[in-house]
Amino acid sequence: MRMSVIDPEFLRRDTWGLKEAALLLAGASPGGIEKLWITDPAEGGLPAHIYANLKDAVESGDLPSRPSRTHKIEHIRVRPWDAIQWAKARGETIPEFLNGVPRPKREPESKSAEKPLTTTEPHVSKKLATLVQAARTKWANADRDDRTTHPTNDEVAKWLEDRGFSRALAQKGATIIRPDWAGTGRKPEE
Q: Based on the domain organization, do 138 and 80 belong to the same domain?
C-alpha cells in the first residue's frame, strides 16, 4: 500500500471511529480514497483486515471503547492510544507517524456520566442502569496499562451506595463492573 498524506487533525482527536483507526493503523488516510478499501473486505487488504480485528476486539472487550448512541459497531469510538497499544500487543507494525500519539491523561469524571441513565427498554432495571452508569463513570478513563488510574472497588461501591445500593449490593456491583483486564489487589505505591 502506498503511504498517504495524513491530516494531522486525525492525530489530535480524542477518539477515532473503527474505520478511521483501521486506516490509520494501516498507514492510510481516513480522509483519502483509501477509505473505500474498508467497504469490501475481499479487496480491502490490510485496512479491512485490521477493521475486522478491531470489531472483534471491541465486541470481546479486549479493546476499550466508547459506546455509540445507535448501538451499531461501526459507530463505536476508541481512544487512539488504546487502538495503538492493542495493535502493538498483537504484533502489528505501527506506522511511524503514530508513534507521537500521546498517552491520554486521566480525565476527571464526566458530568454527563453523572446524569441518570434512562432507558426505553422495559427489561432494564434502575439498578442495572446505575451499574452501567458506574462503569462509564468510573472506568471510561482508566488506562489498562496504568493501575494508578484504576478506581478501587471501595471507591466504586461508595459511588453505588450514594445512589441507593445497599453496602453488600454495592460491593458486588463494583466487582461485577470491574473490567476483565483490570487487575485486583492493591494499587502500586507511589
A: no
